Amino acid sequence: MKQLKRLPEFIRFVMVGVFATALHYGIYFLLQKFINVNIAYTLGYVLSFIANFYLTAYFTFGKKPSWSKAFGFGGAHLFNYLLHIGLLNTFLWLGLSKAIAPIPVFAIAIPVNFLLVRFVFKRKG
Protein backbone atom coordinates (compact mmCIF):
# COMPACT_ATOMS: atom_id res chain seq x y z
CA MET A 1 0.00 0.00 0.00
CA LYS A 2 2.85 2.36 0.83
CA GLN A 3 4.31 1.81 -2.66
CA LEU A 4 1.01 2.86 -4.25
CA LYS A 5 1.23 6.22 -2.47
CA ARG A 6 4.68 6.73 -4.00
CA LEU A 7 3.56 5.93 -7.55
CA PRO A 8 2.42 9.46 -8.55
CA GLU A 9 5.66 10.86 -7.13
CA PHE A 10 7.69 8.31 -9.09
CA ILE A 11 5.75 9.09 -12.29
CA ARG A 12 6.48 12.81 -11.86
CA PHE A 13 10.13 11.97 -11.17
CA VAL A 14 10.25 9.95 -14.39
CA MET A 15 8.68 12.82 -16.37
CA VAL A 16 11.24 15.30 -15.03
CA GLY A 17 13.97 12.73 -15.58
CA VAL A 18 12.95 12.17 -19.20
CA PHE A 19 13.03 15.91 -19.83
CA ALA A 20 16.39 16.39 -18.07
CA THR A 21 17.87 13.34 -19.80
CA ALA A 22 16.67 14.52 -23.22
CA LEU A 23 18.12 17.97 -22.53
CA HIS A 24 21.40 16.43 -21.36
CA TYR A 25 21.63 14.08 -24.33
CA GLY A 26 20.64 16.77 -26.83
CA ILE A 27 23.34 19.13 -25.62
CA TYR A 28 25.89 16.30 -25.53
CA PHE A 29 24.94 15.04 -29.00
CA LEU A 30 25.32 18.48 -30.55
CA LEU A 31 28.57 19.36 -28.80
CA GLN A 32 30.38 15.99 -29.05
CA LYS A 33 30.88 16.63 -32.75
CA PHE A 34 32.94 19.73 -32.00
CA ILE A 35 34.56 19.30 -28.59
CA ASN A 36 35.91 16.54 -26.33
CA VAL A 37 33.17 14.07 -25.34
CA ASN A 38 33.84 14.48 -21.62
CA ILE A 39 33.46 18.25 -21.85
CA ALA A 40 30.34 17.92 -24.00
CA TYR A 41 28.88 15.41 -21.54
CA THR A 42 29.71 17.63 -18.57
CA LEU A 43 28.16 20.75 -20.14
CA GLY A 44 24.99 18.81 -20.90
CA TYR A 45 24.95 17.45 -17.36
CA VAL A 46 25.36 20.86 -15.73
CA LEU A 47 22.64 22.54 -17.78
CA SER A 48 20.21 19.67 -17.27
CA PHE A 49 21.11 19.64 -13.54
CA ILE A 50 19.85 23.21 -13.11
CA ALA A 51 16.55 22.50 -14.86
CA ASN A 52 16.25 19.20 -13.02
CA PHE A 53 16.70 20.79 -9.57
CA TYR A 54 13.87 23.27 -9.98
CA LEU A 55 11.52 20.82 -11.67
CA THR A 56 12.24 18.15 -9.06
CA ALA A 57 11.60 20.55 -6.20
CA TYR A 58 8.39 22.11 -7.47
CA PHE A 59 6.85 19.46 -9.71
CA THR A 60 8.05 16.10 -8.39
CA PHE A 61 8.06 16.65 -4.63
CA GLY A 62 6.03 19.87 -4.26
CA LYS A 63 8.75 21.48 -2.16
CA LYS A 64 10.16 24.96 -2.26
CA PRO A 65 13.83 24.93 -3.30
CA SER A 66 16.20 25.82 -0.49
CA TRP A 67 19.94 26.07 -0.07
CA SER A 68 20.01 22.91 2.04
CA LYS A 69 18.08 21.04 -0.65
CA ALA A 70 20.37 22.54 -3.32
CA PHE A 71 23.45 21.29 -1.49
CA GLY A 72 21.92 17.86 -0.92
CA PHE A 73 20.77 17.69 -4.53
CA GLY A 74 24.22 18.83 -5.62
CA GLY A 75 25.87 16.15 -3.50
CA ALA A 76 23.60 13.47 -4.91
CA HIS A 77 24.33 14.71 -8.40
CA LEU A 78 28.07 14.91 -7.80
CA PHE A 79 28.00 11.19 -7.00
CA ASN A 80 25.69 10.64 -9.97
CA TYR A 81 27.94 12.67 -12.30
CA LEU A 82 30.99 10.61 -11.30
CA LEU A 83 28.95 7.46 -11.96
CA HIS A 84 27.87 8.87 -15.35
CA ILE A 85 31.33 9.91 -16.50
CA GLY A 86 32.89 6.64 -15.34
CA LEU A 87 30.26 4.58 -17.13
CA LEU A 88 30.45 6.75 -20.26
CA ASN A 89 34.18 6.22 -20.55
CA THR A 90 33.77 2.50 -19.82
CA PHE A 91 31.23 2.10 -22.62
CA LEU A 92 33.39 4.15 -25.00
CA TRP A 93 36.37 1.95 -24.07
CA LEU A 94 34.23 -1.13 -24.78
CA GLY A 95 33.67 0.19 -28.30
CA LEU A 96 30.24 1.82 -28.22
CA SER A 97 29.96 4.85 -30.47
CA LYS A 98 29.99 8.35 -28.98
CA ALA A 99 26.35 8.79 -30.00
CA ILE A 100 25.15 5.54 -28.38
CA ALA A 101 27.36 5.28 -25.26
CA PRO A 102 25.18 7.56 -23.07
CA ILE A 103 22.11 5.35 -23.47
CA PRO A 104 23.26 2.46 -21.21
CA VAL A 105 24.73 5.07 -18.86
CA PHE A 106 21.27 6.57 -18.39
CA ALA A 107 19.72 3.12 -17.87
CA ILE A 108 22.10 2.42 -14.99
CA ALA A 109 22.45 5.85 -13.40
CA ILE A 110 18.85 7.10 -13.41
CA PRO A 111 17.50 4.54 -10.86
CA VAL A 112 20.47 5.27 -8.58
CA ASN A 113 19.76 8.99 -8.92
CA PHE A 114 16.08 8.54 -7.99
CA LEU A 115 17.03 6.93 -4.69
CA LEU A 116 19.57 9.64 -3.86
CA VAL A 117 17.34 12.58 -4.83
CA ARG A 118 14.30 11.14 -3.07
CA PHE A 119 16.36 10.89 0.11
CA VAL A 120 17.37 14.57 -0.22
CA PHE A 121 13.85 15.86 -0.75
CA LYS A 122 12.13 13.60 1.73
CA ARG A 123 14.42 14.10 4.72
CA LYS A 124 13.46 16.69 7.28
CA GLY A 125 15.08 20.14 7.06
Distinctive features:
single chain, 125 residues, mainly alpha, elongated
Short overview:
This is GtrA-like protein. With about 120 residues, the chain is an all-alpha fold.
Fold and architecture overview:
The protein contains 4 helices and no strands. The longest helix is centred in the N-terminal third of the chain and has 30 residues, at 2-31. It is mainly alpha-helical and 125 residues long. Helix 1 packs antiparallel against helix 2 (37-60), helix 2 (37-60) packs antiparallel against helix 3 (67-93) and helix 3 runs antiparallel to helix 4 (102-122). It has helices at residues 2-31, 37-60, 67-93, 102-122. Belongs to the GtrA family. This is GtrA-like protein. Residues 12-120 form the GtrA/DPMS transmembrane domain. It is found in: Membrane. InterPro entries: EmrE-like (IPR037185), GtrA_CellWall_Glycosyl (IPR051401), GtrA_DPMS_TM (IPR007267).
Average residue-wise pLDDT: 88
Pick out the low-confidence regions. Answer: none
- N-to-C CA distance: 26 Å
**Helical fraction:** over 70%
Q: β content, as a range?
A: under 5%
- Please tally the β strands and state the result: 0
Protein name: GtrA-like protein
Subcellular location: Membrane
Organism: Bacteroides clarus YIT 12056
Transmembrane segments: 12-31, 43-61, 73-94, 100-121
